[in-house]
């Protein structure tokens, strides 16, 4: 699963890569994000009401109500930051968003931890002409509505879809990795049918990826 990633790509480069018009950039003065955690705000690319691509900042993780098993008291909500590829058409939490609200999640690297006390953090990126070529995770978005400590709450949120780990990720995290989409598949992901989109949920080629940063306590990815 993915609980930490980075997006250090400037807004103008994101607009170009994801074919977003300047007037559809809703990010404002976007800063580089070397460490994005669940419940943090980060950019996504989605279709607006007119069908045009827009860049907006949403919170990472679909929210659902969480209650104490002992007392029934309302706790901080669950944040579902990952959705398994084999659940997106079956689970009630994911199905409607997968069918109607898919998005691209811009990134420059993602992190998986290995071991404990202390953990070693490994940052994965794509190979390319630069140190951290920008790419996009397969994502979904929704307006999460849930019961919070102060009553009914809602938050626009996104989640990242995961699939089986490829050969470079497997030694670090043997089960899952984020789905990375190729630029030629962005249109099908945003506009295609659910069946077409489902066909894109595959591990990225391991020979096109590198581990670009590793170390104890390396919880942010800063290009060197």
Name a few traits of the molecule.
hypothetical protein yedk fold, 8-stranded mixed beta sheet, 224 residues, single chain, mainly beta
Structure, described:
- This protein is mainly β.
- It has a single domain, classed as Alpha-Beta Complex (hypothetical protein yedk fold), CATH 3.90.1680.10.
- 11% of the residues lie in helices and 41% in strands.
- It is built from 4 helices and 15 strands.
- The strands form 3 sheets. Strands 3, 4, 7, 8, 11, 12, 13 and 14 form an 8-stranded mixed beta sheet that branches.
- Strand 3 and strand 4 form a beta hairpin.
- The radius of gyration is 17 Å and the shape is globular.
- The mean pLDDT is 92.
Topology at a glance:
Blueprint: E1 5-7, H1 11-17, E2 33-36, E3 41-47, E4 53-60, E5 62-64, E6 78-80, E7 82-84, H2 95-100, E8 102-107, E9 109-114, E10 120-126, E11 135-148, E12 151-164, E13 176-178, E14 180-181, H3 186-191, H4 194-198, E15 209-216
Parallel strand pairs: 4-12, 7-12
Antiparallel strand pairs: 1-2, 1-9, 3-4, 5-6, 8-11, 9-10, 10-15, 11-12, 11-14, 12-13
Distance between the termini: 26 Å
Percentage beta strand: 35-45%
Query: In one word, what is the shape?
Result: globular
Radius of gyration: 17 Å
Number of domains: 1
**Could you describe the largest sheet, including whether it forms a barrel?**
8 strands, mixed
């Amino acid at each position: 699963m993915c609980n930490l990633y980075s997006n250090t790509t400037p807004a103008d480069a994101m607009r170009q890569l994801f074919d977003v018009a300047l007037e559809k950039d809703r990010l404002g003065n976007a800063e580089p994000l070397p460490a994005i955690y669940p419940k943090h705000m980060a950019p996504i690319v989605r279709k607006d009401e007119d069908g045009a691509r827009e860049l907006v900042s949403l919170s990472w993780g679909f929210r659902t109500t969480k209650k104490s098993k002992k007392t029934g008291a309302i706790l901080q909500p669950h944040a579902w930051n990952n959705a398994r590829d084999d659940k997106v058409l079956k689970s009630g939490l994911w199905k409607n968003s997968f069918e109607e609200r898919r998005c691209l999640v811009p990134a420059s690297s993602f992190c998986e931890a290995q071991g404990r006390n202390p953990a070693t953090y490994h940052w994965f990126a794509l190979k390319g002409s630069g140190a951290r070529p920008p790419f996009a995770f397969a994502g979904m978005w929704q307006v999460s509505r849930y019961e919070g400590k102060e009553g009914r709450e809602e938050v626009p949120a996104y989640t990242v879809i995961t699939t089986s780990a490829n050969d470079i990720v497997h030694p670090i995290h043997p089960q899952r990795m984020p789905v990375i989409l190729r630029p030629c598949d962005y249109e099908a992901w945003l506009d295609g049918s659910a069946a077409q989109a489902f066909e894109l949920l595959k591990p990225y080629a391991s020979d096109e990826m590198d581990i670009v940063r590793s170390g104890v306590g390396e919880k942010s990815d800063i290009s060197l």
